[in-house]
Amino acid sequence: MTFKFYKYQGAGNDFILIDNRDKSFPTGNTQLYNNLCDRRFGIGADGIMLLELIDGYDFKMVYFNSDGNESSMCGNGGRCLVRFAEELNIAKNECRFLAVDGPHYAKISENTIQLQMIDVDGWKQHGDDISLQTGSPHYVKWVDHVDNVDVYEEGKSIRYNNEFKQVGINVNFLTWDNNALHVRTYERGVEDETLSCGTGVTAAAMAYAIKHDLSGDVNVTIETKGGSLRVLFHRDNNSFTNVYLIGPAVKVFEGTINIEE
Domain span at residue 137? Predict the structure, then answer.
């Protein structure tokens, strides 16, 4: 069968998007999703997302990492799917959708998508590092110079250590410089560094607030290899509420692909 696909990117995090409102796209085919995301033999992407219909929401987000396995929440992917929904005339100015971690609200403007993330209550300390759940599990480590980190090797060593190897965890390296938080991320499921990670920069911004004991309304500018993002939230002791991930979501191209049945 021949299917139409769309390629989007959000701060360099790129995705294959499929309009699956008619439920015609093959489901449960891990190898197919992995092949489509392959950058040499497929379309190439960090992940693949299906836009589906569900009662009570504008749409449902179904996300698979590039290894072909269904994954936890992807913030940049969610923003791209919102832009895709706008193109499909499903959403205009704002929308509400359901993802694996629950309901999400988004505001749509010409240059950015402002996506509400889940509230976060607490974190776990690992020496000077922390881990927390922002829709996906994240480990956050401060370093002197993020550009000098071997993200693949150091990220993999944490992601596969005895504490995290069974479920896996995303690993973020942080440096504060020139009034912005500079972040690089090793993503589980991709098993490599990505140009940015939405749930990762959200975790990084919260780690910044924890490190500097910030409370109330917090606004953090974040620089990744793929571009600039912003994270807003309200912090009250151990709780982070009204969390928003803000940044671009851009259509790259569209095409068709033949999938053997």
Answer: 120-247
Tell me, yes or no, whether 105 and 127 share the same domain: no
Distance CA 35, CA 38 (A): 5
Q: Identify whether residues 80 and 168 lie together within a single domain.
A: no
Q: Is there a contact between 249 and 79 (Cβ–Cβ < 8 Å)?
A: yes
CA-to-CA distance for 47 and 179, rounded, in angstroms?
31
In this structure, the answer to whether residues 138 and 240 fall within a common structural domain is yes
Q: How many CA atoms lie within 13 A of 177 on its CB side?
A: 12
The phi-psi region of residue 237 (left if phi > 0; otherwise alpha if psi is between -120 and 50; otherwise beta) is left
Separation of alpha carbons 80 and 197, rounded Å: 12
Query: Catalytic positions, please?
Result: 74, 197
125 & 243 share domain? yes
pLDDT tens, position by position, 182-194: 999 999 999 999 9
Checking if the pLDDT of 16 tops 90, the result is yes
Residue 25 backbone class (left: φ over 0; alpha: ψ -120 to 50; beta: rest): beta
102 and 135 belong to one structural domain: no
Q: Hey, how many other C-beta atoms are within 10 angstroms of the C-beta on 212?
A: 9
Give residue 70's region: left, alpha or beta (phi > 0; psi -120 to 50). Answer: beta
What CATH number is given to the structural domain containing 71? 3.10.310.10
Cβ pair 52, 80 in contact under 8 A: no
